[in-house]
Each structure stands twice: as C-alpha cells, then as structure tokens.
Amino acid sequence: MCLGIPGRITAITDPVRLMAMAEVSGVRREVNVACIAGNQLDDLVGQWALIHVGFAMSLIDEDEAEKTLEALRELGEAQETLDQMAQSVEALR
Amino acid sequence: MKFASEFRDPVAARALLTAIAAKADQIGATRAKPVHIMEICGGHTHSIFRYGLDKLIHDGVEFIHGPGCPVCVLPMARVDECVEIAEIPGVIFTTFGDAMRVPGHKKSLMQAKSAGADIRMVYSPLDALELARRNPDRQVVFFGLGFETTTPSTALSIQQAAREGLTNFSVFCNHITVPEPIKALLNDPDMTLDGFIGPGHVSMVIGIHPYDFIARDYGKPLVVAGFEPTDLLQSVLMVLTQIAEGRAQIENQYARVVPEHGNPVSLAAIADVYERRPSFEWRGLGEIDASGLRIRAKYAAFDAEEKFGIGYAAASRNVPETPGCACGSVMTGRLKPTQCPQFGTGCTPDMPLGALMVSSEGACAAYWQYSGARVVAE
Fold first, then answer.
1. Do A54 and B124 touch (CB under 8 A)?
2. Residues B223-282: pLDDT tens digits?
3. What domains are defined for chain B?
4. Would an 8 Å CB–CB cutoff place A53 in contact with chain B?
5. Which residue segments constitute the domains of chain A, with CATH numbers given?
6. Cα–Cα dist B293/B316, whole Å
7. Min distance A54 CA to chain B CA atoms (Å)
8. Chain B residue at shortest CA distance from A64
9. pLDDT tens, B230-241?
10. What CA–CA distance (Å, rounded) separates B298 from B352?
11. Which member of B9, B159, B169, B267 has the lowest number of beta carbons within 10 Å of its beta carbon?
C-alpha cells in the first residue's frame, strides 16, 4: 500500500468526480486523477502515472514507468497490488 | 552467483559499490566502527534485502531499518479498536489487506472476520466509498492507515463523501507522518545515526523540505531515494560523500518523481481534512509528539471516532504489547531481527507474534524471506 504502481490513463470516465480508467499491468481499474489533473483533463489520456491506492499521484514518463514496474515485480509488490485490486472487486459484491 | 542477472544494470551497480567502498575507506568506516545509515521506508528495507545490498556493500556501512512501515508501527490497541468497530451490528469494516493479520490482544481482523464480522479487504478508500453508496442501510467504515502516501487518498475520499452528502461513510483515522518519528529517534541518546535514506513516494507528496530540520538542527545528511537497487546505492554514496565533505544537506536522488515542494493538490486536501493530534502512540517507539492525524471538526460526520466513540481519544494509553515480542527494540535498531528470541520459533510469517513479521516491508519478514537465498558477490 505504500509503493505506487505505474498505470497508463486510457480514458476519462467521470470529469466531475475526476475519475479515469487506467491500465495497470494489463488490469483495468478506475482511478482518481485529482492530484495530476491540471487544466486539461483530456490531456491525461495516454500518459503514465504512479497510482497509490486508487489515486494517480504523479505523472511519470514511459521509461520511468517500465523501470518502476520491473522493480515492483522483483519485489513481488506488483502482483500484491494486482491481487488487492482483484480482492476489492470481490469486496464490492 | 547471481550478481549479473539480479541487477538490471550490473555494471552501474558494481561501479557504485566500488565508489561507496572508496568513500567509506576515506572516512575511516570499518566493520568495528561503521557508519550507520537509516533507511526510513519499509519499501527500501525490502529492496535492500531482496538484492542483498547489506551484504554486497562495504563492511563499514551498516543499514539501520527505520520505522517506515505503517503496519509495523501499529499498536495492538488500535487493532483492538478496529475489531471493536467491526463487530458493531450493521457495520461493514473496510481495510487495506496489509492490516488483516496484525495481532490484537484478543484477535486480528482476519480472526474477527472468520468469527463473523463483516470485514472487507479493499484496494482503495474509493471502494469503501462505493460500498457506502451501494449499501445505504449499512455503516461503512474505512480504516485510514499509512503515512503521507495514503493520507491524501483518504482525505480526498472524505471530501468526495461530503460533496455527495453520504451519511453512512466514515473513516477510522490512524494516519501518521514520517518526519516526527525521525526527530524522536534523533533525540534518543541511545541511537547513533550518521545519515538517512529518505522515502521516495512519501516525499512525492510532501516534497523534501519537511526534512530540513534533520540537516539544520541535527547536522545529519538525508538523501531522498528511488526504489531500484542502483537508486539506493547512489543515495548511500551521496550520504557518504556529504559525510566525507563535512556537509549535512537534504538532497533528492529521486527528482524524476519527487518535486521539491511535493504535490500541491494532495497537500491542500491533507490541510483541509486533518489536524495534528497532540501526540500519537507508535508500536515500539511510544508516544511521539504531533505524529498522528485526526479528522477536523468540520468533517466530524465522517469521523468514526466521533460516530462510535471508539478510538485514540477514548482508549487508555500504552496497552502492553505481547510478552516476549521485541519489535520495539528491532524497530529502533537496538536488536537485529535474528537476535530476537522469538525470531523463527515463536514468530514466523505464518504465525506472527509481532507486526514486523507481518508485512513484507517489515524488517523481520524481510530477514525471514531472504536470509536463505542471499545474493552473494562474486
């Protein structure tokens, strides 16, 4: 929960609540983009961000995203985060 | 030997290890008289063990594992309070999975769930918010846990709940801050710390200036670091270089992610939603001034402490920890995990006695996981 995971913003889903769809290691997850929104919400689409517990906290470039994902995979943290996302889908049922 | 395959950039790692050795020799650091560098963040602790950096590095550099694992510093009394709230009829208690197995005096959240309490593991406070929307007849409580990486997400969720006028969503706020325990450790006469590796993702939120007092008032260097092994080695070299040159400054090795002044939206949400508690209890460290956050009165409707009358303000202080558990001494670097009499016998990741064995970012769990599969230098 302390380490962010890189994800790519693929679409803005709710401009009022500042929500967007992100793809994290092939898993789609809705995230809040308030912390990186700036003026033009649509500009976020296609960009990479570090995502912490469902909130995009910082824009990063693609190279940094790849390096961070690899480091997280090495630590087992990437899978842990993806498992937590899957668990959360269960929790909502 | 795995050196080459373990590191993404083995050439850079080796060059950094050589430069660190030269710098350590220059300042006269030896196995008998080492330089003590504390990595504050549990993620860094995990990375150091994963790559065996503590073994690969010069004998004169010793890592002291800091208190930067929120699950590890969670007192048992807080777990008891979570269980108490979760067992209230009609409550759905939501938490990050990390906290499920931390022992309380009677039971962990996992055990309370098995016994019938409606406890759900969520990835994000947004999911707790969604549960509240879908279950208007139930009280949904989110366990707000963690340092400045998770603090803004809880604050933004409370603001969202207020905008929607949700009346069945509240947060059991146990958020804590990084700089204050560092001050407590620096004030401890038993601690000998020569420099710090600062947390990466916490600093992404708060920036690098909240650490200024460490250099200014205590004369110790701190370098904010990324999570790759070469980031950590580079940061150790930067700390040693400051020591060699007689400097004490706050430097940012992770500037590609960490802005000097942090993330303004996060900081504004934190300031709007929380205020500091006069003090807060840390497992192993005791009460630390101004180290915990509570929800401001204007958001009292979303404060589980107010709603249920359970929590830090209502509970007695300093409830004793499990007998025989040495987490406090390990947390402050007085004991190595393997020097705890319970390590590997009374306390294992499957049956944890202390919190340091629970989280993958805890020093004991890291020792346990990697002590058998060390990366050894050629």
1. yes
2. 999 999 999 999 999 999 999 999 999 999 999 999 999 999 999 999 999 999 999 999
3. 3-70+183-244 (3.40.50.11750)
4. yes
5. 5-91 (2.30.30.140)
6. 18
7. 5
8. B256
9. 999 999 999 999
10. 39
11. B9
